[in-house]
Structures are given as structure tokens and as C-alpha cells.
């Protein structure tokens, strides 16, 4: 009996073991290799999903795991996967910043980018030359590889289609021979086209190793999050700098246009990318949904043409593409041979809301841009639902989408320079994670390129987000008086100005910036005031030092003043109250304007008193102190050196910068001709002030013809660097309530202004 029970127990246990094995509860090693091999022991803790230790540089266990894992799984993968692995498509597939990037290179000198010198005999396409020039002209560039955090090849990697005339042969050997390549670590490779007929794979034809990819038309399958950067596909004619503005000139309510949905492009009869475009005729109605395709492209299109080709080609020629683009509410962006398409950027610029129809495409700059706010993401499998989907979108949402297309186009896409700088800023945010920008900074005006994380990571410290955050503008300002002449008399204009400014109820502090070569005056020579007066020496005694981000500025608002400015306390108070309503702009008194001289084909500068202006000079203006940081950090050294050498045009350059950021004009307050007349009567400020004597009996610089000639030159030099003219004209002037009205003076708050 006992033996029978033992047999039943053994039988039950055996049955349980067999059941567990069948259900996968017990795994039996199938490899012929024994478990005692060293590489098997190293797998402990490094399997898929394991948390990698944060190490600086390339993790050796990571490499070993990949190599050994590939050996173990060789017999379980498909032949195509084997080919892809051998070609380098999946090499470094698991790379992330923590595992394939050496952060220590960035700790020494910050985020600096080195571009390899161009090798003899190597030709560069115009597009790649524009990319390299944009990097070399940026604040990130360094010519010393020992200071670099990131490296960029001088070998053209943009077009890796073997049938293209731009294809660079033997690229693998050329890259491997570079002494700084180091397996691709801390390198970034730019690419627009990969693969060739017929399948157009994403293989670049060489092993990128540990390098990051900044690639157009990259799929979500091959995209390595927080490591690669998806960039837009742009044409060879895309401008290097500046770029055109968006075509949305004004908002129409309701925001509907002539067409609801349009597309005009090639139809592929065979090969990859043909299915989606071949099916567009199903939803084309020739009325509000106009989707046109043509078979007439390529050398042998007639060999493959189908029954619809002749009809499609005839209708295709009836419509003008630009007219359709600018008169449609939505623009279809289907995939082509590759996932990306030129239609994407064209739709953004035209304020035609893109309807994406490219499954698996990692959208450009998806790491930072919320595309749901600017585009409609469709599905190729649900093509027939697209018309009803776009018709169901409310007009408020359409207006919001359209406005966002214009912001994104001008902020990140309208030039090669902005595409490149956005790519570098994304990588810098990864490297300096503690100072990275927020999602709101990237997706709202003025955009991530103009919100420097080195200044602050808090939205409330920037002038652009006060309204959105519900924050009241600052209630105090700091006055900075720029002094270039010696203090010889208590009756000098600078003394009167200092007293008048210090009496303002909004003044927190007065800073005297001493840019004179003579020693600082004794403290007792300055007038006694109710607010602190700090005298500091300008750095190198150059005129740009007036815009340095001094730590002694305690407030967000800055009142910038020239030493010979004539302002009353009432004028200062009124200007500051106006600035509180426009904290992101320059607000002040002396206005100037620019114009296009068609005869000389250049920009002109004028100080004529008209009803039109585009600049407010910083000799008597209020602005946010953040612009000091932006002026110092964003602008290139070449422009600031030019300004310092002439000791002129710094105010124009600041106006260029602020208008570039805000896309808005400055604000002029109360007409004050006395300001001009007083300035015309003041003696001359030398162009390179040495302060070796007084300025008596010398003419005003405002009447000096060389002064205005220099400013004309500055206008064109600045416009050339910016790539376009950022200044915006305005005819608005803000005066106090009841200004010049025939009512009792007692009813007016700023009554003293009218007496000036």
C-alpha cells in the first residue's frame, strides 16, 4: 500500500514537471556552450530592461552584452536581420547618452563643437557647406579639438543614395582613418538621404559606431530616443541664414480658405511609397478636396503607367501648386520614397496645417516640439477617413494650429542655421540636464533658441511669460548711466540726470558705468540721493560694456541712459508704467527708423521726425535685463568688435536683437522734440573716448556726418549677419491720458510732461 502511494506521488510530480515545462515555467539551456563561460556570468544584471549604471563614456559591459547576445541569438534571427547587422544598420542600436557619450569632455569647457578641417580633394555639397558654416558661426564653435564636447565631420554625409552624384565613395575607410573618430563617440552625423532603389533603407553604407544621427526621414523603429535627432528634409535652395517669414499676414475669422485639403506631387507606380499616393484619388473630389498626382517623372514612366495616368497628368497640369498651397486650410503630407517630404516645410511656411500621412516617421525635433499643436497626425491605413476628420475640426482649433505653424516655421525651420542650432541646443540640453529648457519654452514664443537656460530655468525670470503665468511685471527698475567724459563740474548734465532719475518712485538703484580712462571720481563728488548709487568701471572701456549682465543689477527692469540725456522724473515714471504693460519690448523716447534705398540697393538709417519709427535708442529707454545676457551670449563677437571699434551702433544692434526675438516693434512714448534739440546742442562725444579733456567747443556727434555714415554701414552689416531685416515699423505712440487735451491740468496725472 505504501509503495503504491509512493508511485502515485512520483507520477503526479512527473506530470507537474512536464506541465510546467510545456507552459514555459522551466527553461532548459539549449545552447551547446556551458554556463561556466565568463561572458555568461557577466550577463547577470545586464539583460534587456536592466538599469544601466551612469558612467562617463562607453560602457564596456554594454558592448560585451551586445556582442555575446548577438552570438547567442545568431541561429534565431532572420537572414535579413543578419544582413542588417553586418551592414551596420543596427550597430549601436541601444546607444543612449548615458552609455555612448563621454560627458567628461563637456565638463572642462562647456558645450563646444569642433568641425574637422576639410580634407584636400573632398567636395562638399552646398547644403552640407551651409551646415558647417552655421556651426562655425555659432557661439558653440571651437577651433581647438581639445576643448570640444561634440565633433562634426567635414566629410559630406548628407546624401547616401548610391545613385546620387553627391554620394561620397569609400566613406567608411575615410572616417575610420580620422584620429579623433574614437568609434564615433561624441560625434554627430548629419544625413538627409539614405538607401537607394528599390527599398530605400535607412542604412548609411558605413558603420556609424557610437555617433549620434541628425537624420531626416528617420523611422521610429530605428530612432534612438534621447540620442538621435530627427531633422526635417530641406532642399538645396533652403537659405543658410535669415529665411523667409511665414505667409500668414493676418488672421481670418472664420479661418477657412478656398480649399479644405490639397496635395500636388508625384505618384509612384511601383516600389516603396507607391501605395499611399496611388490611393489618393479615392478622396479627391475636385472641389474642396483637391489631391493631384502625376505619373510623368523618371525616364521610363511610360513603361509602368496605368489606366489612370493620362487623366491624372491632364488634371495635374490645370492647377498651380503655389496657388493651392496658399489657399488651403489643410495640406496633405504623404510619405514619398522615404518617410519625409519637402511638402512638410512648404505647408508650415504657407500656414497650411499639415496632415501627416507617413506611418512610422519620427517627426522633426519630436523631442521638444508638441506636433499635436501644429499638425494633424493621420494614419495611412485610414485614408478614407481623412476628409471627415479635417471637416470636423472646430474653427478655433484651426486658427490655433495655423498660428502654431507660423511660430514653428520662423523659430526652428526657415533656415539651415536654425535647423542646425536647434539640433545643437537639443544636445546641449541633454548634456546639461539641470539647465535644460521646459516644454513651454520650446513650444511658445519666442522659442527655445532665444531662452537661454544659462540665464535661468524658471519661466518667471523671462519677460515673455508674465501674462501666461499671471505674473505682474516688476515694480522697480535699475538705472544705468553710461559715462564717457570726466566729471569736471557739478552742473554737468549727468549730475542733473542722476538726481532726476533717483527721485522716481520706481527707482531701486542707480548704476554709473564709468567708461572714461580717467580715474573714478571721489564718492563725495556724486550728489546725495535717496537710493543707492553704485559706480563701476566698464570692462575694457568699450561701448558694448553697457550691455553686460552685471551682477549688481538687482531688478529685472533696466533704464538705460546716456550721460547727456535730458529727462525729468515725471517722464521716467511714465515711461516705466508703459513698460510694465510691454515688458518684452524696448520702451523709450528717442525714436529712429530704417528704410530700403532702392537706388543704392541697401538699407538706410534716418532720424527724421515722422509718424513712423522702427527703433528706440537706448540712450533713454527701458527694457528687461535678460536682453543683456542675450546681447552678450547670442550675438557673435564680430558684431560686438565692430561696434566697439566705432564706439557707435550698439543701440541699433540691441534694437535688431529685441525685434528679432519678439517679432514686434519697440514702443515710443510721448513726443519729445526737446530731447533732439538738447542733444544737438551738446558737445561731441569722441568716437573712441579717451577722456583726456573736456568736450567744450566741439560739435555734436548727432550733427557729425561720419556718425550717420557709420550707422548706415551698421544697418547693412547687421542685416547681413541676421540674414534678413528684423526691425518692424510702427506708428503707435503712447501718451499720458488727456495729454494735450484742453482740460484742467489738475485732472492730469503726468501734468509736468506737457510743460517740457
TrEMBL record:
Catalytic activity line of the entry: 3-O-{alpha-D-GlcNAc-[(1->4)-beta-D-GlcA-(1->4)-alpha-D-GlcNAc](n)-(1->4)-beta-D-GlcA-(1->3)-beta-D-Gal-(1->3)-beta-D-Gal-(1->4)-beta-D-Xyl}-L-seryl-[protein] + UDP-alpha-D-glucuronate = 3-O-{[(1->4)-beta-D-GlcA-(1->4)-alpha-D-GlcNAc](n+1)-(1->4)-beta-D-GlcA-(1->3)-beta-D-Gal-(1->3)-beta-D-Gal-(1->4)-beta-D-Xyl}-L-seryl-[protein] + UDP + H(+); 3-O-{[(1->4)-beta-D-GlcA-(1->4)-alpha-D-GlcNAc](n)-(1->4)-beta-D-GlcA-(1->3)-beta-D-Gal-(1->3)-beta-D-Gal-(1->4)-beta-D-Xyl}-L-seryl-[protein] + UDP-N-acetyl-alpha-D-glucosamine = 3-O-{alpha-D-GlcNAc-[(1->4)-beta-D-GlcA-(1->4)-alpha-D-GlcNAc](n)-(1->4)-beta-D-GlcA-(1->3)-beta-D-Gal-(1->3)-beta-D-Gal-(1->4)-beta-D-Xyl}-L-seryl-[protein] + UDP + H(+)
Domain Exostosin GT47 intervals: 108-392
Cofactors that this protein relies on: Mn(2+)
An annotated GO BP: heparan sulfate proteoglycan biosynthetic process
Any one cellular-component term (Gene Ontology): endoplasmic reticulum membrane
Record GO terms (molecular function): glucuronosyl-N-acetylglucosaminyl-proteoglycan 4-alpha-N-acetylglucosaminyltransferase activity; metal ion binding; N-acetylglucosaminyl-proteoglycan 4-beta-glucuronosyltransferase activity
Pathway the protein contributes to: Protein modification; protein glycosylation
Role this protein plays: Glycosyltransferase required for the biosynthesis of heparan-sulfate.
Membership in a protein family: Belongs to the glycosyltransferase 47 family.
Protein name: Exostosin glycosyltransferase 1
